[in-house]
Structure formats: structure tokens, C-alpha cells
């Protein structure tokens, strides 16, 4: 076991983690621990853009952006946080430009902007060009730019270090402080303990609980799972976004930028069906509305293809110049994965699991909440792992790349300031006990269950029972299935007993986190008896502001008779979940009917 000591430790090297590291690295000694090489992080897959009311192409302002974010989130957005994000969006984009990010340009040399779903002028009157973009590779450009600037500022990276736990120590005031992180080095199998004054989690989402997803194989909710297992809450886990335009049958993402440039969704009859569901902004309605509309077209028999199981994205009218200059990757995806030539024929698409609106609750300074009011000293979170909440029950497109930059920056500044004002606290007596127990048990386990079989069964039940549309019956089925799979997980076998790059072991650990988070999602979805944003109940079809204008706060109970340091998920998971609620912060905009 090796020990390290840093002022600030950042867990995760995607957009949020590296944006935090740039700020922390200029103020304190900072380390970044990442399961992947930094430029492989999933931020690199984001395509369409990052929104800010620059008004480079047409009139716009941050207040309109704030309103769109709140309305787009179906009024479950914390409005103080949305205002912070929209106000700071402009500087966030300009900061990236100064760092060297190659945005597309207008003829006058300004950052170009295009339309995106749910972004409007003057409180919903018409679509607005707000998304700043670098072709359809915006996330890739952001990731490369941030990594280069981390190197410039001397940030220290520990690549392929898989963080599996955090250490907690009572502070002078008696409250539990976060004092470090424990990581498993993939290359050697060694365990490393990183003592720190503050720790920032920026580990991304958990899309691999679903089978059809735009998410990479590595998005297994590690950060959420680690914090949840410490008895800390997860917020709004029932709200999961299904991006309307995944390549049919595959889930590979076709960016909303295609519709921003003028792409049209059509059913088997060639009808532009979004005119019936969102007559004002049509194909540029928020993602939850478009995804449900697409699903409805299929359910009512208007789907395309031999099995009538998808709809069509028509870009044949855009022309070769637009497709090749502004949407080159997406055009190539259609050709490569489906054999479709978008210049001449429509692209088959269907909703794909895409983004978690819920996660680790934080305030606007990225401090992790221990409950509705109190924070965990020394612990921060930003990006998809966190719930500020600026996305409410449905995130608007391009607000994710904005979120990671605004709140990644805030996390880095706050964590460094905290570190500079406090001394190191002693680590627990056995800081790596939980990780050692977990790794050793899994490596030597000789059960009859296979990780791949359990993961496949999990993804299939989540796709079938907790997807775009849900009912009490399907959610109960999913919950029953997940809990049975958790029992089976206690009897798995890891066939590779080695230490170096043991991917069998890695996938076994990841599956444990996925099972925990799937149970959390389904449990909170069962309790929310309404339809709002990304949570659509066929048995409760309307939004219920009287009973459910509130955030869910879910806690994993730690029974007194159990050893809280015992390895989790090895002899059976703790499934005693406590569900509480937190009020939504409303400052300016009262909930109203959501029409587009």
C-alpha cells in the first residue's frame, strides 16, 4: 500500500474534473485520479455545443436562458442555481476561447451559435441561436483544451487509478470530514491512499444500467455509488433522460445539433409529427417531449422499418456543405453503423438512455450535502455525478457542457480555498480496510454466477421496465429483478486472479455500483406518482405540483448491527432505503403549464 498527500484530490478527469483541477492547481497542490486516461473521458463524446447568451448571431440574454432552463426542467430546477449557471455561461465560453478552444466562427470572426432544443428568445416565443459549437465535436475539443491547460498549470495526474472509497474522519466540531480517497491502481493491482484536505468528485453518470444507451462502457456510477454507500443522499434519481435521436437498435448518439441545423423527424408516412406535439418549436422541443412523442408514434403504429420500431431523421434537404462542414462525425456515424447515406435517405432513430439529472446533492459552491441543509466538510462534486439542481427533471441540450465548466470551476475554487484555510486531519486507523476487503473477496470468489450474465439481465429489465414510459407494475418488476440480481451478485466468480489490468475484477466492482444505482432509480420512481420531465408514468399522466414539487432525497440505511466498514455487496447488499424530500428553490418563476 502506498500513501500520498495533496491539498486537493480530484476524482475523475472529464470536463468537470479537469476544469476543477485548472482552478485548484493554481491555488494549491492538486492531484487528479482517473479510471481512464484523461482524453478518453466521456466528455469527448459530447457533440452539439455549449450554450451561452453571447448574442453573437441574434438578440439573447442570460435571463431568457435562465427561464428556458427552469421551464425545460419542468420547474423542478433550483432557480438560484439556474441563474448562477446562465449568468456565468458567457465567461465560461470566453474562458475556453482564451484557453485555445477552436470554436466555429461567424464571417465577422465571432464564436458562431446555432439552435438547440428548448432554447428560446423572449420566454418561449421562438427558437434562438445560443449553442456555441466546434462542428459536432464540441466535447472532444473541450476535453483536449482542458487537458492541455491542466498540463500547463502543473496538475499531477494519476491515470488508471480507480477510486473505490473515501475516508471520513471526525473534525474538531464532531462532524464527519472527508479526508482522502482510496484507489486501486489498474496497472499493478496496488492500493493507494491519498490524504487530502478536500476531495472533488467528477466521475460522470451511470448510463450502463440500461442496454440501449449513448454512454460508454465506463459510465458505471462509481462516484455516486461510493458516496451513497457512506450513508449520504442521492437526489432525484428517478429522472433519467432519454435522448431522442440514437441510431435505431444501437443507441449511438445523433446530436441534437442535427435538428438545430434544420433536421426534421418524420414517421413512416413522411409526416413531420412534432408539429402535433410542439407546434411552436416543433423538432426543437426539449428532449423529454421529443422522446415521448417518438415513442408514441411507434406505440400507435406509425413507426418506420420492417418492425415499425423507429422513426426517421430527415436531413436530405440540408445539403452536402452543411452536413460535411457542421455535422461531419454524425454523417459518418450514419454511414458506418447503419449503412445509410444521409445526403439521400433519412436516418433511422429511436430514444437512447443518455443523462442522469439526479446524483450527489450539492449547493451552488459544489459542496456535497449531508442532508437538506448541512454540508460534508471537505467534499465537493461537479458534473453529471452531482445534482445542483440546474437540470431539474429534464436537462436542456448543451446545458451539460455548460454545467461541467461553470460548476467544475466553482468546485475547484471552493475546494482550494477550503484546503488553504484548514489543516490536514488524521486518516482513519485502517483507511483502506473496505477496499482491501472488497478487492480480495472478489479476486478469490468462487461462486457460480458470471458478471456478464447479471449485467445483461440488469440492462434488459431496466430497458423493458424503467425506460421512457413507466407504470407501477413495470417499476415493481424492475425493483424485484434488481434485488434478485443483487442476491446473485453475492455469488459471482472472478476468473482472472491476477493483479495487472484485471478487467474481470474491474467489471465486477463496476457491476456492484450499477446494481445499487438501478435500485435507487427504480425505488424513487415508484414513489413519484406523477409525470414530470424525464419521468413519465402511464398510470399518473399529469404533473402534480401539490404533492411532488419537491426533490427526492434517498439514503442507504446502515443498520446498527452491521459493521459499517464491512465490504459491501459481497455477502448481500444493504437494501434498506430511506426516502425523504427537499423543497425546490423558487425565486422568480412560478410553475406553469409547459407548452412549446
How far apart the termini lie comes to: 57 Å
Q: Give the C-level CATH assignment of the domain at 433-583.
A: Mainly Alpha
The secondary structure category is alpha/beta
Give the overall form.
Answer: globular
Q: Find the CATH topology of the domain at 433-583.
A: Methane Monooxygenase Hydroxylase, Chain G, domain 1
**Oligomeric composition of the shown chains:** single chain
**What's the main sheet like?**
8 strands, mixed
Q: What is the architecture of the domain at 433-583 at the second tier of CATH?
A: Up-down Bundle
InterPro entries: FAD-dep_OxRdtase_2_FAD-bd, FAD/NAD-bd_sf, FRD_SDH_FAD_BS, Fum_R/Succ_DH_flav-like_C_sf, Fum_Rdtase/Succ_DH_flav-like_C, SdhA/FrdA/AprA, Succ_DH/fumarate_Rdtase_cat_sf, Succ_DH_flav_su_fwd
GO biological process, one term: anaerobic respiration
Subcellular location: Membrane
EC number: 1.3.5.1
Could you describe the 3D structure shown?
The chain is of the alpha/beta class and 596 residues long. Among the domains are: 107 residues, Alpha-Beta Complex (Flavocytochrome C3, Chain A, domain 1); 151 residues, Fumarate reductase/succinate dehydrogenase flavoprotein-like, C-terminal domain (Methane Monooxygenase Hydroxylase, Chain G, domain 1, Up-down Bundle), CATH 1.20.58. It is built from 16 helices and 22 strands. Strands 1, 2, 6, 7, 8, 9, 16 and 17 form an eight-stranded mixed β-sheet that branches. Strands 11-14-13-12 form a four-stranded antiparallel β-sheet. A three-stranded antiparallel β-sheet has the order 3-5-4. About 2% of the residues have low confidence.
Amino acid at each position: 500500500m502506498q500513501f500520498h498527500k495533496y491539498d486537493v484530490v480530484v476524482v475523475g478527469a472529464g470536463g468537470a474534473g479537469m476544469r476543477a483541477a485548472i482552478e485548484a492547481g493554481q491555488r494549491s497542490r492538486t492531484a487528479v485520479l482517473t479510471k481512464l486516461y484523461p482524453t478518453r473521458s466521456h466528455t469527448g463524446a459530447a457533440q452539439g455545443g455549449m450554450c451561452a447568451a453571447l448574442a453573437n448571431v441574434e438578440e439573447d440574454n442570460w435571463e431568457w436562458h435562465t427561464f428556458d432552463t427552469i421551464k425545460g426542467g419542468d420547474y423542478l430546477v433550483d432557480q438560484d442555481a439556474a441563474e448562477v449557471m446562465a449568468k456565468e455561461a458567457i465567461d465560461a465560453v470566453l474562458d475556453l476561447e482564451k484557453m485555445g478552444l477552436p470554436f466555429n466562427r461567424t464571417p465577422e470572426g465571432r464564436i458562431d451559435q446555432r439552435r438547440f432544443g428548448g432554447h428560446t428568445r423572449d420566454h418561449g416565443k421562438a427558437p434562438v441561436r445560443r449553442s456555441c459549437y466546434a462542428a459536432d465535436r464540441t466535447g472532444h475539443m473541450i476535453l483536449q483544451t482542458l487537458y492541455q491547460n491542466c498540463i500547463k498549470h502543473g496538475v499531477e495526474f494519476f491515470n488508471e487509478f480507480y477510486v473505490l472509497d473515501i475516508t471520513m474522519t471526525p473534525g474538531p466540531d464532531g462532524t464527519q470530514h472527508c479526508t482522502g480517497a482510496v484507489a486501486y491502481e489498474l496497472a499493478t493491482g496496488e492500493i493507494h491512499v491519498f490524504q487530502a484536505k478536500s476531495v472533488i468528485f467528477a466521475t460522470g453518470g451511470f448510463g450502463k444500467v440500461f442496454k440501449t444507451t449513448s454512454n460508454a462502457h465506463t459510465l458505471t456510477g462509481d462516484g455516486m455509488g461510493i458516496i451513497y454507500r457512506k450513508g449520504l443522499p442521492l437526489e432525484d434519481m428517478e429522472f433519467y433522460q432519454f435522448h431522442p435521436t440514437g441510431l435505431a437498435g444501437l443507441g449511438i448518439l445523433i446530436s441534437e445539433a442535427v435538428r438545430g441545423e434544420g433536421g426534421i423527424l418524420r414517421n413512416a408516412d413522411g409526416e413531420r409529427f412534432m408539429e402535433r406535439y410542439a407546434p411552436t418549436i416543433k423538432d426543437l422541443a426539449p428532449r423529454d417531449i421529443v422522446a415521448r412523442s417518438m415513442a408514441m408514434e411507434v406505440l400507435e403504429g406509425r413507426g418506420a422499418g420492417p418492425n415499425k420500431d423507429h422513426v426517421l431523421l430527415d436531413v436530405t434537404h440540408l445539403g452536402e456543405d452543411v452536413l460535411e462542414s457542421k455535422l461531419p462525425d454524425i454523417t459518418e456515424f450514419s454511414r458506418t453503423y447503419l449503412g445509410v447515406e444521409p445526403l439521400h435517405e433519412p436516418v433511422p432513430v429511436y430514444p437512447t438512455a443518455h443523462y442522469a439529472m439526479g446524483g450527489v446533492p450539492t449547493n451552488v459552491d459544489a459542496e456535497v450535502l449531508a442532508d437538506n441543509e448541512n454540508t460534508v466538510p471537505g467534499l465537493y462534486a461537479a458534473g453529471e455525478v452531482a445534482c445542483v439542481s440546474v437540470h431539474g427533471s429534464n436537462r436542456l441540450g448543451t446545458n451539460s457542457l455548460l454545467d461541467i465548466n461553470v460548476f467544475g470551476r466553482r468546485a475547484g475554487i471552493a475546494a482550494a480555498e477550503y484546503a488553504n484555510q484548514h489543516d490536514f486531519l488524521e486518516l482513519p486507523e485502517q483507511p483502506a480496510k473496505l477496499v482491501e476487503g472488497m478487492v480480495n473477496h472478489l479476486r478469490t470468489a468462487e461462486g457460480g454466477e458470471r458478471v456478464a450474465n447479471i449485467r445483461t439481465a440488469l440492462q434488459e429489465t431496466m430497458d423493458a421496465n424503467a425506460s421512457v414510459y413507466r407504470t407501477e407494475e413495470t417499476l415493481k418488476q424492475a425493483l424485484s429483478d434488481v434485488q434478485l440480481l443483487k442476491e446473485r451478485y453475492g455469488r459471482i466468480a472472478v476468473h482472472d486472479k491476477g493483479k495487472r489490468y484485471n478487467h474481470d475484477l474491474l467489471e465486477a466492482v463496476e457491476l456492484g455500483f450499477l446494481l445499487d444505482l438501478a435500485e435507487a432509480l427504480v425505488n424513487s420512481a415508484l414513489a413519484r406518482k406523477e409525470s414530470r420531465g424525464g419521468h413519465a408514468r402511464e398510470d399518473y399522466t399529469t404533473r402534480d405540483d401539490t404533492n411532488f414539487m419537491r426533490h427526492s432525497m434517498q439514503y442507504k440505511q446502515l443498520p446498527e448491527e452491521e459493521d459499517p466498514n464491512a465490504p459491501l455487496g459481497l455477502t448481500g447488499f444493504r437494501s434498506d432505503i430511506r426516502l425523504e424530500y427537499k423543497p425546490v428553490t423558487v425565486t422568480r418563476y412560478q410553475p406553469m403549464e409547459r407548452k412549446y
